[in-house]
Specification:
The complex is a heterodimer. Helix content of chain A is 38%, strand content 16%. By secondary structure, chain A is an alpha/beta fold. The longest helix of chain B has 20 residues. Chain B contains 12 helices and 6 strands. Chain B is of the alpha+beta class. The relative contact order of chain B is 0.04. The chains are: A alpha/beta, B alpha+beta. At the A-B interface, helix 3, strand 3, strand 4 and strand 5 of A face helix 3 of B.
């Protein structure tokens, strides 16, 4: 009966099936019996009888019909590829044995990323990379050349200055510029 | 068009007619039929020419000027102007995130997409993420070593080998300092100080040594003969160092002290060594005689003595136990 139910549901009203007459008769009989059952079954809620798949969906982008969504290398590789095809965005000693200040460093990183993305509005084309060496924080990333170089220099100085005051460490911005955001597209999906 | 009527009294009768005519004319002009369409205007463009001015019935639609494309700024790349025999150390003096336009190498990194080459160095965030050692090329290292050399002194003359070092400087004090990538330089583990001394170097007699070992218990390692003292009770490492020096002095002095009880005859307990002659009593002798039923031959007894001493002193293992078994069997005459 379950089988009947699935076949009835899978037959969409718009699809046309070319079948021979004999098969048609059989099908109609089958359909009749199934429809009666279906009416009975409609009032009962179904339970899942198959195993749940629990597929991971993190960091995965949906494929478009016309392959129009651009993905950078970072986006194209999923979180499971970190350590294989991708590298980390934050480099510090906090996760080593007896490394100190782990939660504070993570929060600082989050703050830096938000601040930099907001200050350089629409200019960053890659993820923001934060490296810590001794006392210094080095922020790196790829930037579009949408703004005049003069403005960029100002933004660099502004970011470095304010961040170093807030985080109490010398901060350096090490950027790479790219003509267009299309230059960092890895593939279209 | 119409004059502002501020004071009616000012309007003179003579002007009134003209005034009315003007208003009527103005109204007529506004009438739709009489209105000349805005579109049909005499072209202004050909004003300057002597040619016949064209009448444009339909005005040209407002054409949107094409969006002015952002001028692509020519950004010069530093790598172009670099010679083969240049000084790379002055271009890349410190640790720096990878910059493709400065580094003259044709590097590629990444997993290629289908039918695509490996992503090149421009706009490559992966190359920026990984640490690079472009600031530590061999010529730069050599230069730095040369600069540091003038601060170095030669190694002391009589301390070439490790043995010589141990003989001359037996006591070692060791501390560790810790670095973190954080604004704070503090680490609670940095105050711990370890002191290691070979016990032979302390010049203690047998009794003093015995006492020291009893005081010290686990801190003495019999395999290496080293006494290890660790201090972490003070907040600073130099304080802990001083404490350790004090501690060692106290230990040595205490172990050298002796009371009236220290030099008793029955010092098996003191010496920690099993010796048959001290332990053996009449009961054991009698028991041994009973086993055989006659007086024991001294060599079997001696062997038994030796084996029991061996077990007590060096511990039970297969060899000593088998020796013991053989000795006992011989005693029993089996």
């Amino acid at each position: 009966k379950c089988l009947c139910l699935t076949t009835v549901r899978s037959l969409k009203p718009r699809t046309r099936i070319n079948m021979s007459a004999a098969v048609n008769v059989r099908l109609s009989n089958l359909l009749q019996s199934c429809l009666i059952d279906q009416i009975k079954w409609q009032s009962i809620r179904g339970i899942q009888t198959t195993a749940a798949v629990n597929k991971s969906r993190s960091g995965r982008y949906k494929v478009t019909r016309d392959r129009s969504r651009p993905l950078t290398y970072e986006m194209a590789n999923q979180p499971c590829q970190i350590g294989h095809r991708k590298s980390w965005n934050s480099w510090n000693t906090t996760s080593l044995l007896d490394g100190q200040r782990e939660p504070e460093t993570s929060i600082d990183d989050m703050f830096i990323r938000k601040f930099v993305t907001g200050t350089w509005h629409g200019l960053f084309v890659s993820e923001i990379i934060i490296k810590r060496q001794h006392n210094m924080i080095r922020v790196a990333g790829v930037v579009q050349r949408k703004v005049l170089p003069r403005k960029m220099f100002f933004l660099i100085g502004y970011t470095e200055e304010l961040l170093s005051y807030w985080l109490k460490c010398p901060v350096r911005l090490e950027l790479q510029t790219v003509e267009d955001s299309k230059d960092v597209v890895y593939k279209y999906i | 068009m119409l004059p502002n009527v501020t004071n009616i009294s000012k309007i003179r009768l003579t002007h009134a007619r003209f005034f009315i005519f003007k208003t009527m004319h103005a109204l007529a002009r506004k009438h739709a039929r009489c209105q000349v369409k805005n579109n049909a205007r005499i072209s202004q463009k050909t004003r300057t020419d002597d040619e016949f001015r064209t009448l444009e019935l339909v005005k040209e639609r407002f054409k949107r000027t094409p969006r002015r494309e952002r001028e692509k700024r020519e950004v010069p790349q530093r790598r172009h102007g670099q010679n083969i025999d240049q000084d790379w150390g002055s271009i890349w003096p410190v640790a720096r995130t990878f910059h493709p336009a400065t580094v003259p190498l044709p590097i590629r990194q990444g997993y290629p997409a289908t039918s695509q080459p490996i992503p090149d160095k421009y706009g490559n965030a992966e190359l920026m993420k990984i640490p690079n050692f472009l600031h530590l090329t061999p010529p730069v290292i050599e230069r730095q070593c040369l600069a540091l050399k003038k601060f170095c002194t030669p190694w002391p003359a009589g301390l070439e080998t490790r043995e010589k070092q141990i003989i001359n400087f037996p006591l070692t004090l060791s501390t560790s300092s810790y670095l973190h990538s954080s604004p704070s330089i503090r680490d609670p583990r940095a105050r711990v100080v370890t002191m290691k001394v070979p016990v032979d170097a302390l010049n203690l007699d047998k009794h003093a040594l015995n006492k020291l070992l009893r005081l010290v218990v686990d801190r003495y390692d019999p395999k290496t003969g080293l006494l290890t003292l660790v201090a972490d009770r003070c907040p600073l490492s130099n304080q802990n160092q001083e404490y350790l020096q004090y501690l060692l002095t106290v230990l040595v002095n205490e172990s050298k002290k002796s009371g009236p009880f220290s030099h008793e005859e029955n010092d098996l307990f003191e010496n920690r060594v099993f010796s048959w002659s001290k332990v053996q009593t009449d009961t054991t002798q009698r028991r041994l005689n009973e086993v055989r039923g006659e007086a024991m031959s001294s060599e079997f007894v001696q062997e038994y003595e030796k084996v029991v001493t061996e077990i007590h002193n060096s511990g039970e293992d297969d060899y000593t136990i088998s020796q013991y078994r053989d000795a006992v069997l011989k005693l029993y005459g089996l």
